[in-house]
């Protein structure tokens, strides 16, 4: 007859836990209540349980330099709870009496259990205070899993977690989304302000993105300026909303640095992944392709992509490049004239000349940039503008160009031969330079801009608010006008970005430039733009582009007061 093993008495179990300096707990995520075994206060050296009675109070004791806590470890698990719970493990440090007090190294292991929607609902586990040798070994393990600068999963760990999550989507789980977020203009930030400021922006971007994650979502640092995101329970309908939410969260406010407040934005590309999508390399490539397309189309926003459309998109871009090249060679590039109205909307002040080869002008810019046609396209627009200005004495036009193009000998030849002796024409032309390109300009570019302005041609900086802002360069450039990215105005009512908009408008005023707005979609956006002190606007609300050269005339468009 088998002998029944002796059972450990409750008092003995408590003594054993005290001996190994361990304590058990149960955490209810919905209420944040954290219930401990009777010996927990003694293990941690606390007078009572008040300071560890909730998850948030316990987290307040974490060493600020600790890369992860219990909540992060739970969030970083991508497995599905099949009823037995999902294991997690974290190693962190506690400072019980302030940031300068001695640190306790803690090992935390447990299992979390899901609610009806598959999200973590409660966790049961055990903490153990580590001695010095164990703490050093744990520190090395944590350091190999987490990026030191941001505290997020490093690339291999993140991708391994995503790979582990893919099979779960084939067992009836709702679709997930894979996104890549890239900090806009990080190289320029490093060159202008130094790598310390660049690191500050990287850490801040990670912090702002992480704050938007739900339990079960994942974030990892893929490279210098890139983060990967796995968003659970996200379908095609929600994808763009989710992506734009992350973009809005990052740019919501300026970042205080030792060089002064700086703008921060990320561009994102991503796609939904379902049960058939198990090729992680293809998923990452598709997200990178969507990111590249989005950064050319609208930096600081989100672009959706897909595995099935990736090849078709490339073929479409190739066809557009061919048609652009043919039209440039034949001198038959088509253009539209987009109206620029008073912010009050009562009359058209000028027109923006844009290529009509594709309904999306930013796609044209992206394809032209990747195929080496940008300079030729900018030169074509200049030639067309000169012809139009000569034919219509009351017409005012703006054209878009990259700063470096102004140094092109073909460009300067047109400027000097056709506009230098026609101040009446030069005074009716504005050259728009993208703000993201106005960082640490070469002396030759500054000289070319100065020559253009000396002829009476106006200079405008566009894309203001979408990426890093080099105030020093803008002060040197002293543009006549600065165009605020219109989507910032449109989204301000939804994401609480009015403070950021006011700060950007104040910057423009400090530079002595006229404030304008782009991509204004409706009357509400126009009203917000006007309240910021803007004088003019472009976008759908200002009216559609026209193919025929306009003859300027009053064209009222009422905007509610």
Automatic annotation (TrEMBL):
Residues 551-561 have a biased composition (Pro residues). Coiled coil: none annotated. Residues 174-309 form the GGDEF domain. It comes from the Bacteria. Residues 542-561 are annotated as: Disordered. Residues 317-561 form the EAL domain. SUPFAM superfamilies: EAL domain-like, Nucleotide cyclase. This is EAL domain-containing protein. It comes from Prosthecodimorpha staleyi.
């Amino acid at each position: 007859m088998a002998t029944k093993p002796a059972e450990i008495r409750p008092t003995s179990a408590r003594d054993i836990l005290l001996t190994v300096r361990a304590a058990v707990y149960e955490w209810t995520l919905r209420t944040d209540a954290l219930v401990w075994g009777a010996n927990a206060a003694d293990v941690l050296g606390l007078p009572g349980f008040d300071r560890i009675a909730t998850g948030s109070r316990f987290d307040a004791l974490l060493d600020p330099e600790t890369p992860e806590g219990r909540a992060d470890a739970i969030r970083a698990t991508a497995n599905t709870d099949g009823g037995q719970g999902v294991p997690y493990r974290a190693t962190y440090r506690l400072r019980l009496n302030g940031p300068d007090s001695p640190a306790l190294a803690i090992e935390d292991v447990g299992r979390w259990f899901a609610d009806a929607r598959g999200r973590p609902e409660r966790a049961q586990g055990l903490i153990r205070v580590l001695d010095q040798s164990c703490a050093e070994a744990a520190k090395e393990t944590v350091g190999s899993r987490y990026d030191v600068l941001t505290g997020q999963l490093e690339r291999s760990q993140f991708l391994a977690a995503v790979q582990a999550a893919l099979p779960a989507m084939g067992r009836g789980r709702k679709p997930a989304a894979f996104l890549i977020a890239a900090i806009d203009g990080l190289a320029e930030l490093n060159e202008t302000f130094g790598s310390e400021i660049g690191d500050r922006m990287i850490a801040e971007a990670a912090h702002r993105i992480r704050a938007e994650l739900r339990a079960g979502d994942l974030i990892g640092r893929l490279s210098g300026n890139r983060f990967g995101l796995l968003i659970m329970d996200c379908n095609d309908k929600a994808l763009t909303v989710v992506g734009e939410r992350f973009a809005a969260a990052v740019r919501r406010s300026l970042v205080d640095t030792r060089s002064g407040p700086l703008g921060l934005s990320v561009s994102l590309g991503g796609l939904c992944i379902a049960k058939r999508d198990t090729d992680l390399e293809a998923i990452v490539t598709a997200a990178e392709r969507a990111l590249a397309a989005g950064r050319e189309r609208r930096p600081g926003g989100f672009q959706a992509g897909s595995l099935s459309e990736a090849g078709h998109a490339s073929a479409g871009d190739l066809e557009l490049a061919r048609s652009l090249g043919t039209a440039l060679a034949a001198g038959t590039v088509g253009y539209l004239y987009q109206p620029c109205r008073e912010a009050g909307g009562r009359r058209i002040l000028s027109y923006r000349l844009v290529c009509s080869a594709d309904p999306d002008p930013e796609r044209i810019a992206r394809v032209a940039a990747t195929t080496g046609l940008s300079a030729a396209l900018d030169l074509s627009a200049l030639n067309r503008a000169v012809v139009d200005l000569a034919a219509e004495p009351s017409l005012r036009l703006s054209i878009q160009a990259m700063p470096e193009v102004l140094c092109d000998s073909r460009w300067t030849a047109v400027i000097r031969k056709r506009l230098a002796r026609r101040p009446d024409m030069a005074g009716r032309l504005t050259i728009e330079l993208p703000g993201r390109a106005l960082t640490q300009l070469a002396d030759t570019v500054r000289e070319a801009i100065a020559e253009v302005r000396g002829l009476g041609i106006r200079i405008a900086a566009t894309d203001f608010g979408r990426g890093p802002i080099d105030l020093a360069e803008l002060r040197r450039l002293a543009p006549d006008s600065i165009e605020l990215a219109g989507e910032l105005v449109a989204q301000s009512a939804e994401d609480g970005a009015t403070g950021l908009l006011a700060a950007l408008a104040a910057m423009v005023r400090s530079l002595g430039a006229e404030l304008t707005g782009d991509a204004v979609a409706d009357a509400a956006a126009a009203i917000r733009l006007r309240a910021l002190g803007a004088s003019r606007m472009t976008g759908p609300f200002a009216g559609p582009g026209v193919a025929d050269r306009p003859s300027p005339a009053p064209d009222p468009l009422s905007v509610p007061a």
